[in-house]
Amino acid sequence: MHAAAPTGTSTVTNWRRTLKDRNPGEIHDFEFTPQKPGMLTLRIGPEDAPPEAGLSKKANVAVRVR
Asked: For labeling, which of 9, 31, 38, 52 is most exposed (least CB within 10 Å)?
């Protein structure tokens, strides 16, 4: 999974899957260890999905790493 970049950059951070619950509608937990404190932008959502696919839109979430 590639999902976070330091705010104001296009650097992508690799996340590691840590848990998969194996239930209907599975939930997957991911983690990453930031290199230093600062602001990250978490980008959530499908990449380049056509509108007719009916998928949710992308969202950006600001995250402060201490």
From this structure: 52
| The pair of three-digit structure tokens given for residue 56, joined into one six-digit string | 């949710």
DSSP secondary structure letter of residue 58: P
Cα 29 to chain centroid, rounded: 11
pTM: 0.49
Task: Give residues with Cβ within 8 angstroms of 51, minimum separation 6.
Answer: none
- Say if residues 5 and 41 touch (Cβ distance below 8 Å): yes
The phi-psi region of residue 45 (left if phi > 0; otherwise alpha if psi is between -120 and 50; otherwise beta) is left
